[in-house]
Design goal:
- This protein has a 4-stranded antiparallel β-sheet with strand order 1-4-5-6. The chain has a two-stranded antiparallel ribbon with strand order 2-3.
- It has helices spanning about 25-35, 50-55, 80-100, 105-130, 135-160, 160-170, 175-180, 180-195, 205-230, 240-245, 250-255, 270-280, 285-305, 310-315, 325-355, 375-385, 385-395, 400-415; strands spanning about 45, 230-235, 260, 415-420, 435-440, 445.
- Helix content is about 60%, strand content about 5%.
Length: about 450
């Protein structure tokens, strides 16, 4: 489960339920992230000027009073992140207490579950986004710690016996079930299924083991992701001449003492020797990455086994349309058989492109892994539209026109409109972002 999506995956919002309740003490946070501050009159920009907004980066970011990220003042400092999470968790605990203290099952129980889902997702959605797009290192660290805390809290809720008992009593009340709409019933049974997938039925010791493995899984996934994108350090002395530049001192100053940082496989480079060198070095065996991957796989497998599944894939696929790993394998085999003729045809085109490129070097005709991006890119440039036609389309597909078309589509199909609104100082994580309000024709402002 993801931090932002874990709880929401089993708290499906039923549209027939009353409007969500904002968090106490942090109403502005919920308003900005869920509904927006409906009390103030936003300064609205027409879509015609949106293109200019992007060209003049920051033009609407530094106006108005100073606030925190997403318009929530607490999200302006690292300490504020921890304070916001404390308030969010405090409110969630109050909702949990209301749910488990219900004397009889009722539709209000499901309503409280929905409020609980909203309370944690409003916070987790923001934090999860900031983890991937941090404005600075200190904020990044605070967001990461809060995200891990939120993830652990979600799993605690998933394995809370009293919560499970409360929602199960609702599911066993035939009169309540018959009086629910289809959306409510889907939300109810989705909730039950997700809690059972988290081992709610297990003895205490096994539930504690599951929670421990879930926390470990989040850490293992983060470690592997970091290592997967970690640049490869190379000694300057082993670099091909084309990568060395004319002066060794330039590289020493830029990349560190006698080192070159390889950030990607370089398989789209126009020089074949560079493609081969960088691909082999970037994809060379790394014991550190392999150990992290094995740790991730073992933790996933142990977690799935703990709650009664034979594999992690079985656990993840059981509530989905696919249902099982076998169904996915069958689909992939079918997809392979359908695509194989087209793939063979494309491979022949790539071979022909390489033959043209290496016609003076008969020993370099064979396709290699490091050819995978360069030659398809060459073919695309040959078969695509001309530069003149390309520029002609770009003139018609500038950002303002594209978003205007998207807005018209949303109005006709979804009955919502998109409006650019002025952002306050500190509200956006980057100056190139633009704040867009989403208005429902019936309910008004629903979010940003």
């Amino acid at each position: 489960m993801t931090v932002a999506g874990g709880l929401r995956s089993w708290f499906k919002r039923a549209p027939s339920l009353p409007q969500r309740i904002p968090l106490p003490e942090i109403t502005s946070f919920t308003q900005h992230c869920t509904y927006g501050p409906g009390s103030r009159d936003p300064k609205v920009y027409s879509w015609k000027t949106l293109k200019q907004v992007y060209k003049e980066a920051g033009a609407v970011v530094d106006k108005g009073p100073h606030t925190g990220l997403f318009g929530y003042p607490l999200l302006s400092t690292p300490d504020g992140f921890y304070r916001a999470w404390f308030l969010c968790k405090q409110h969630c605990d109050e909702l949990v207490q209301q749910i488990v203290s219900q004397e009889e099952p009722s539709i209000h129980t499901l309503k409280l579950f929905d409020d609980l889902s909203n309370a944690i997702c409003v916070y987790a959605d923001c934090i999860n986004f900031i983890v991937g797009n941090p404005p600075d290192k200190k904020i990044s660290e605070a967001a990461w710690n809060c995200a891990m805390s939120a993830a652990g809290y979600v799993e605690e809720l998933n394995t809370n016996q009293d919560l499970y008992k409360a929602i199960r009593e609702v599911s066993l009340d035939r009169n309540l079930i018959e009086g629910m709409g289809e959306e409510d019933r889907l939300a109810l049974f989705s909730l039950l299924r997700e809690m059972e997938m988290s081992g709610i039925h297990l003895p205490v010791l096994l539930r504690e083991k599951y929670l421990s493995l879930t926390a470990q899984l989040h850490k293992d996934g983060a470690v592997f992701t970091d290592l997967a994108h970690k640049p490869v350090k190379l000694s300057f002395d082993i670099l091909p001449p084309a990568l060395r530049g004319s002066k060794r001192g330039d590289y020493d100053k830029k990349y560190g003492h006698g080192e070159y940082l390889l950030h990607n496989s370089g398989s789209d480079h126009n020089m074949p020797d560079i493609r081969e060198f960088t691909w082999k070095r970037y994809h060379a065996h790394s014991q550190e990455r392999e150990s992290a991957l094995l740790q991730l796989i073992n933790t996933r497998h142990a977690m799935a086994n703990t709650v009664g599944f034979t594999s992690f894939s079985q656990r993840e696929l059981s509530p989905t349309m696919a249902g099982s790993p076998e169904t996915v394998s069958q689909f992939l085999e079918l997809l392979k058989s359908e695509l194989e003729p087209y793939v063979k045809q494309e491979v022949e085109h790539i071979k022909h492109a390489k033959a043209e490129d290496c016609r003076f070097d008969t020993g370099a005709m064979e396709l290699n892994p490091w050819c995978g991006r360069y030659y398809p890119g060459t073919l695309n440039s040959q078969y695509n539209i001309s530069n003149h036609e390309h520029n002609m389309f770009l003139d018609q597909l500038d950002l303002g026109n594209v978003v205007n078309a998207l807005n018209l589509f949303c109005e006709d199909v979804l009955h919502v409109s998109l409006v650019v609104e002025e952002a306050s100082q500190g509200e956006l994580v980057h100056k190139d972002l633009v704040k867009i309000a989403v208005f429902d024709e019936r309910d008004g402002l629903v979010g940003y």
